[in-house]
Amino acid sequence: MFDLPDLGKDLEEHAQRIDALKQELHDLYASFQASSLFAAMPGADPGALVEQAQAKMREVGRKLVEELENFQLVLRQRSREADQRLIHLARAQQLAQQRLREEGHPEFQEDSDGERGVPQ
Asked: Any coiled-coil ranges, and where (predicted)?
C-alpha cells in the first residue's frame, strides 16, 4: 500500500539520477566547447570531434529522457496508490460514522430539522 517514506525515497533517487544526467550533459557541452578550440589547430579533424561530442550528447540525452519517463511512471503509480488509499480511508470513515450513528452517538444523530449534532 501507499507509504510516504518510500515515496520520498523513490522521488529522491530519481531526482539524483536526473541531476547527474543533467550535470553530465553540462560537462559534455563544456568539453565540446573546449575541444572546438583544439579543432581549429592544424591537423585536427573537427568533423570527428563534433561527431563524437554529438554522439555522447545524444546518448546522455536519451538516458535523461528515459529517466524522466521512468520518473513519470513512478509518479503515476504512486498517484494511483494514493487514490486507492484515499478511497479506502473514505470508506472506512463512512463505516465508522455509520456505526456511531447506529450506536446512537449524538454527534451523528439528526434532529427534527434534519441537522446533525448535539443541540446547542
From this structure: 4-70
